[in-house]
Amino acid sequence: MASNKRKQDEKHLKILREMVALPSNKQCFDCHQRGPTYVNMTIGSFVCTSCSGILRGLNPPHRVKSISMASFTPEEMDFLKSHGNELNRKVYLGLYDARSWPEPDSRDEQRVRDYMVHKYESRRWYVAATDAMRDEARRTNEAALSSGKQQAKTPLRWQLGEHANKPSTNPAACVGVTVPLPGAVKTPFAAASAGSLAQPGAVAPSS
Description:
45% of the residues lie in helices and 4% in strands. By secondary structure, the protein is mostly helical. The protein has a domain at 1-144: Arf GTPase activating protein (Annexin V, domain 1, Orthogonal Bundle), CATH 1.10.220.150. Residues 10-137 form the Arf-GAP domain. One of its GO terms (cellular component) is membrane.
């Protein structure tokens, strides 16, 4: 039983790390600091350590969990797959206008806190999520995760080209690798090599 739980936790952690690596989740949803380490389970966003503490102090408090230290149920993972930072941007910042309330500097904790009160408690810029929006978020997230897994499974030689790791046995493949300097003396060996690389069917110039 403990072994199954550990395997499930490892599987969920792998998925979470893949999700936080998606372009829309690479920055904290609330202050844009890079490298979120927590998940806001109340709305399904990815946030930094500092903002996770502020979220706990809101009214009502948001439920946050550490990506690397907490366990997640299959239901929670399913919830996250249909949310993420991009969906929440459309919901909690749907009516947002930076001219009326500029985004705070992540180093100004009080400004960030005020911004989050407007965003969550007052719902100043809120637009209700629809089932269609959640379905689109799920499709986008699952497609991105699937693409990442496929890329990881693809042999490097296929990513670089079918023959990328095969040394060529054709002498012509080496043409252009070494270029004689102007004025260099052509040795008999070089002349013979150049002649052997002539195109098939080419007629040698008359002497």
